[in-house]
Design goal:
The complex is a heterodimer. By secondary structure, chain A is of the alpha/beta class. Helix content of chain A is about 35%, strand content about 25%. Chain A has a single domain, classed as 3-Layer(aba) Sandwich (Rossmann fold), CATH 3.40.50.300. Chain B is of the alpha+beta class. Chain B has two domains: about 180 residues, no CATH class; about 200 residues, no CATH class. In chain B, strands 1, 2, 3, 4, 5, 6, 7, 8, 9, 10, 11 and 12 form a twelve-stranded mixed β-sheet that branches. In chain B, helix 1 packs across helix 12, helix 2 packs across helix 12 and helix 12 runs antiparallel to helix 13. The longest helix of chain B is centred in the last third of the chain and has 40 residues. Chain B is elongated and about 105 Å long. The chains are: A alpha/beta, B alpha+beta. The structure holds adenosine-5'-diphosphate (ADP) and magnesium ion. The site of adenosine-5'-diphosphate has 12 residues of chain A, from strand 2 and helix 1.
Chain lengths: ~250, ~425
């Protein structure tokens, strides 16, 4: 019963071939339990984003196995991977990646639409997610009419609207001022307190300070894995559904 | 349910990218409309040619001297027994021969006087066609007299200067309905002819050809005396005794003429055209015209298509990122392809339908003197091609992007 949320064995990722090949991730073994709040740190180019993309099933590793909730992602076809991304993973990008010329509400509704949730329920849930990130009064705004902090909160609403167990964020506050950063981090704290597993890439020590565990990367390897005393996570509050159930 | 979702996203995509949508629609619209209108103009003009030829009786033959006939040249050079290389009134008379040419009914030699001006009581009119011929021409050409009388053999033999005028000429000279022209003396290039009748209207041909009532008929003898001189005739009209004897008449005519001109069928210095061969010659000319217009139209369709392609491809960077985002949050490949398919269908089918509408409405107007006739195949072709182009370039890049890993689509530049 006690399968970890994430389990990586010998994960590598090589870009290009021959002379110009770049080993972005050079063998990472990692286990993350349900409900953990993990910060990933490291110099630019150390392979953090690449690793995160593998975790989010946005990219496939060159070698190694990655189990998400006990499920070997290497064995899944495109359709199942899309299902996983839709139901089990919320991904927050540094550059927000909202669909342009599309309202905040419509952006947040998207994952639900792909999950097959219908009209009224879908609107209500999207509305609730926007409430959650404090943007109830901005539902009809286009991305271009929102500040960076607001856009990132829309992106977070979109990431959590399907209630995924795993929330991944690649420098989510990198483009934000300190006030917006604080808002976003508080959101992550709340989401983590609800039992979601969170992995966040950051450059800032104060961001890392809020995490129960800090991974430091260098040259594609995790060279330090530090658990903070006193921030040990309580086990997941939520009953933990078997991932296989949605993917099957 | 999923299809409905894709449709909603597609509609949003269309409305969110107003400029792209308008340009795509416009490109397709122009391409389709151009093809339909240009082909309609071509079809309309060949239709007009056919209409005018179908008025010619189906049992008439037209004999013309052929240009540069080698037979004629040879004869001029080697001539103990030199005959005229051109068609003459005697040739026409020779065709009226119950023994040698039993299938030939009426024969009418025709001379045409060019740039003839008619004047009467100070009014003047430039005559469209001035024809000198025999009385049998009237029945050969299906002409009747509206007012007055026709000229007869006696007029022909007596070389009387009498004339039949078309209503355009009559109206221009005496005003009103022109009927009072009967009995008037009219000067044609200075020579006085007495108008003895008004020809029944032929009407203008489909409204786009020269006025067929702008003409004058007079006895060939009198015309030769005054306007054309005694040279060759421009052509000889021959009517077979019936539609069934046209082929026989043609053979008889060529036998007689070959003998008179001392030529064989290989060296003949004249040509015989039946209404079918005239029709097919004219049809092939107008078909060439239609093909030419069609080619121009095809080019405009191509240019329109390239425009559409450009717009679709230029937006592909942005759309590829969008596809990456959609895949990152769980869209299936079929969701993406469905969305872009519907988007492309909306744009190109709407553009195509508008193009058909504009093309058909535009074809209702007379264009450069031609009443266009919409050819159904051009509608189908233009619509089909442009919609296919729109669909292909709307879907193909999207389909490729949808097959990418999400991260590759997101990174696309
Ligand atoms: N698409 C790519 N193609 C080739 N090399 C890449 C690509 N993405 C990242 N890299 C390389 O992989 C290494 C790790 O990059 P990345 O994971 O983005 O690092 P970080 O997020 O820690 O800054 C870098 O050397 C980078 O140049
Ligand atoms: Mg990075």
């Amino acid at each position: 019963m006690n399968t970890p949320a994430l389990e990586l064995r010998g994960i590598t990722k090589v870009y290009g071939q021959g002379e110009t090949a770049v080993q972005a991730v050079a063998g990472v073994d990692l286990v993350v339990e349900h409900g953990e709040h993990v910060a990933v740190m490291g110099a630019s180019g150390s392979g953090k984003s690449t690793l995160m993309h593998v975790l989010g099933c946005l990219d496939t590793p060159t070698s190694g196995t990655y189990r998400l909730g006990g499920l070997d992602t290497g064995a899944l076809d495109d359709r199942r991977l899309a299902l996983l991304r839709n139901r089990r993973i919320g991904f927050v990008f540094q550059s927000f990646n909202l669909i342009p010329r599309t309202t905040a509400l419509a952006n947040v509704e998207l994952p639900l639409a792909y999950a097959g949730v219908r009209g009224k329920v879908r609107k209500e849930r999207a509305q609730a997610a926007l409430d959650r990130v404090g943007l109830a009064n901005r539902v009809d705004h286009l991305p271009s009419q929102l500040s960076g902090g607001q856009q990132q909160r829309v992106a977070i609403a979109r990431a959590i609207v399907t209630e995924p167990l795993l929330l991944l964020a690649d420098e989510p506050t990198g483009a934000l001022d300190s006030h917006s950063t604080e808002e976003v981090l508080q959101l992550f704290d709340q989401l983590n307190a609800e039992g979601r597993t969170i992995v966040v890439i950051t450059h800032e020590e104060e961001v890392a300070a809020r995490s129960g565990r800090v991974l430091r990367m260098f040259d594609g390897k995790v060279y330090q894995d530090e658990r903070r005393v006193g921030r040990a996570r309580t086990p997941a509050h939520r009953s933990q559904r078997d991932v296989g159930e949605v993917v099957r | 349910m999923r299809v409905w979702g894709s449709a909603v996203f597609a509609l949003r995509g269309v409305t969110a990218n107003t400029m792209r949508s308008v340009l795509t629609t416009l490109g397709i619209l122009i391409g389709v409309a151009a093809v339909i209108i240009l082909v309609a103009v071509g079809t309309g003009s060949s239709q007009a040619v056919k209409d005018s030829l179908s008025r010619l009786g189906s049992n008439t033959l037209t004999i013309r001297a052929s240009q540069g006939g080698t037979g004629g040249m040879a004869r001029t050079g080697g001539g103990s027994n030199t005959k005229q290389a051109q068609l003459t009134v005697e040739d026409a008379q020779a065709l009226i021969d119950a023994q040698e040419a039993p299938s030939v009914g009426r024969v009418a030699p025709v001379v045409t006087a060019s740039s003839v001006t008619a004047t009467a009581d100070g009014a003047s009119h430039s005559v469209g066609t001035f024809t000198g011929t025999t009385p049998s021409y009237l029945s050969l050409n299906d002409d009747t007299i509206r007012s007055g009388t026709a000229f007869v053999d006696a007029d022909y033999l007596a070389r009387r200067r009498v004339a039949l005028v078309g209503s355009t000429v009559a109206e221009d000279l005496v005003g009103g309905d022109g009927l009072s022209a009967v009995g008037k003396s009219v000067q044609f290039n200075g020579t006085t002819f007495k108008v003895i009748g008004i020809l029944t209207d032929k009407g203008s041909n489909s409204g786009n050809q020269s006025d067929q009532d702008d003409r004058v008929l007079a006895p060939l003898t009198a015309v030769q005396d005054t306007l054309t001189g005694y040279g060759s005739v421009s052509n000889i009209l021959v009517q077979a005794t019936s539609a069934e004897t046209v082929a026989a008449a043609e053979t008889e005519v060529s036998e007689i003429l070959d003998m008179r001109h001392e030529v064989t069928s290989d060296t003949a210095d004249y040509s015989i055209m039946n209404s079918e061969s005239i029709l097919s010659a004219a049809t092939s000319t107008s078909q060439t015209f239609t093909v030419l217009l069609g080619a121009v139209a095809a080019i405009s369709l191509l240019v329109g298509g390239i425009g559409v392609m450009n717009i679709m491809l230029v937006t592909v960077t942005e759309r590829t990122r969008e596809i990456g985002i959609r895949k990152a949050i769980g869209a299936q490949r079929s969701d993406i392809v469905g969305q872009f398919l519907i988007e492309a269908v909306l744009l190109s089918v709407f553009g195509g339908a508008m193009g058909v509408l504009v093309g058909i409405v535009g074809s209702r107007f007379t264009i450069v003197g031609v009443e266009p006739v919409v050819a159904p195949y051009s509608v189908v072709l233009a619509f089909g091609v442009s919609v296919a182009v729109g669909l292909f370039f709307g879907i193909y890049p999207a389909g490729r992007a949808a097959a990418l890993r999400p991260i590759d689509a997101l990174r696309y530049e």
